[in-house]
User: What shape does this take?
Amino acid sequence: MIRFEDVAKIYGTGATGFEALGGVSFQVRAGEFVAVVGPSGCGKSTLLNILGLLDQPSRGLYALGGREVGTLGDGERSQLRRVKIGFVFQSFNLLPRFSALENVALPMSYAGMGMEERRARAAGLLDRVGLKSKSLQTPLELSGGERQRVSIARALANSPDVILADEPTGNLDSRSSAEILGLIRELHAQGKTVFLVTHDPGIASSAERVLSIKDGRIIEDRRR
Ligand SMILES: Nc1ncnc2c1ncn2[C@@H]1O[C@H](COP(=O)(O)OP(=O)(O)O)[C@@H](O)[C@H]1O
Ligand SMILES: [Mg+2]
Assistant: This one.
């Protein structure tokens, strides 16, 4: 379902160019749960941003669902991202002036859904992550764990096949972390393909597949 063939990312150009990914190859089947681990600065977010169609590889092939997507222009890439990919970030990236419900409903408007349908669907997603009673609160009125629940609900807005979570528990206490991980595992159980960047060895050891990255290269690809 996902195929990377010698994917590299170079930030900048010429002598000042920096190779953040140095030619990465792997395949992931639909429905797999992949943990991505490695030291800070090794290229995990760069990898996820390319996977999530936020960024373009400098070379190599990226096939998503049998289609080459690495060479798509910005417009086509973001259209595809809206329907195929759900992103969860360490820093939540919620809009502070909007309610939880509005944050979750927002991606649906890009997908052309009408307002009533958006509100109903967003309410259902917030219920699913246990936040039904807080749907009208803004991010500042929510705890870190609750904010991350909102962002998981938002990631599900357009029913993506692929969930990409970049250190989603990095700003959370251990109890909230466990709850967020539980939700992410549920998504996997429901058939989503999940990539989870994590520093936590405990989480990594429980994943069915672990990609270890160092200096922009995969140094280990372990399946259980
Ligand atoms: N937009 C950018 N411009 C230049 N260098 C970048 C950019 N983004 C990341 N880098 C560099 O690429 C390397 C990998 O970064 P990143 O993928 O964020 O690592 P990780 O997520 O593993 O901490 C780091 O050395 C970082 O400084
Ligand atoms: Mg990172």
Summary: The chain is about 35% helix and 30% strand. Residues 11, 18, 20, 38, 40-46 surround adenosine-5'-diphosphate (ligand 1) (CB under 6 Å).
